[in-house]
Amino acid sequence: MSDNKRYHISCFGGIYDNKSITENEFLIIEDKSKKISKLLNEIDYYPLILMNCQEFNRYCETTLQQGDNDFININRLFSNLVNSFYMWISYNERHYATVFKKLKFGFYDTDFCYRFLYNIRTYTAHNSLPIKLITTDALKGKVDVLAKVSDLTAKDSGINGKFRDELLKMNVEKVNIYDVTADFVTAFKKWQIDLWNAIKPDLNNDIMAINRIIPLSTPWFVNTYIESSDHKDSVPIGHQIKYLADKSKLHNYNFLSCLSQNA
Predict the structure, then answer these.
(1) Of 177, 193, 203, 262, which sits with the fewest C-beta atoms within 10 Å of its C-beta?
(2) Is 227 helix (H, G, I), strand (E, B) or coil?
(3) Nearest residue to 174 (alpha-carbon basis) of 140, 128, 141, 133
(4) Cα separation of 130 and 123, whole Å?
């Protein structure tokens, strides 16, 4: 790069406003900003999936109990859940391949609900909607949303061979998707925390690298941008850290704990 290029901090009202930084410092913050942006996107899948679970379960617990057996709507809501879960898997396989690869095999091997939702998406995409039966017990206030095992274990179902064998060994005619989904909510919350914990060491390093260039603890940091004379777009690092702090409160997981630990 030529010598006339300038890199500086922009933070209206802050003591670091218009402070020059080196090219290397700019590149460090630019790199960390991209990684934080990737994490912010990952975090947003978490409430998306939980909201889809809530909508599916609420429909089962209210509308179906009233005797409205709308198979299109129940399959639509279940498909929303399954597809959002698949998006979560695909995103993390691409952007957090190293840590997620180790975790996902553990999730798959340990939890039936992971195996079921993972495989049911393939079946749904290649065969038909999975929910074929709905039964209600008004006295007990219970709804059973059922998939036929014979459909899932057919040779052309498209599901994983080992999982097909597992379903056959269960020696049942139907799988209660409502119960599987209830188990999934609890399990998914644990999977997400396990993933964030695995991501956290690298995130801590990124946060502290930024903090060494410009302190994140100052009240005006939210207004901080990093500017370069040869870049059209500034780096909105202040807003990104603010969003990360907001999501920490929203999901009760402190993504910025390294700042207090190193205070």
Answers:
(1) 262
(2) strand
(3) 133
(4) 8
Q: Is the dihedral of CA 140, 143, 148, 152 positive or negative?
A: negative
> Whole-prediction pTM value?
0.91
* C-alpha distances out from residue 226 to 33, 143, 169, 207, Å: 10, 55, 59, 15
Task: Name residue, tokens 């290397």.
Answer: 24
The total of other beta-carbon atoms located within 10 Å of residue 104's CB is: 17
10-residue block means of pLDDT along the chain (263 residues)?
71 88 95 98 98 92 68 92 97 97 95 96 90 77 86 90 94 94 96 98 97 88 89 88 96 94 64
DSSP states of 131-199: --EEEEETTTTEEEEEEEHHHHTSTTS---HHHHHHHHHHT-SEEEHHHHHHHHHHHHHHHHHHHHHHH
Structure tokens at 193: 């925390």
Which tens digit of pLDDT belongs to each residue from 4-56? 568 999 988 888 899 999 999 999 999 999 999 999 999 999 999 999 999 99
Please answer whether residues 210 and 225 qualify as being in contact, where contact means their C-beta atoms are separated by less than 8 angstroms.
no
CA distance 130 to 147: 6
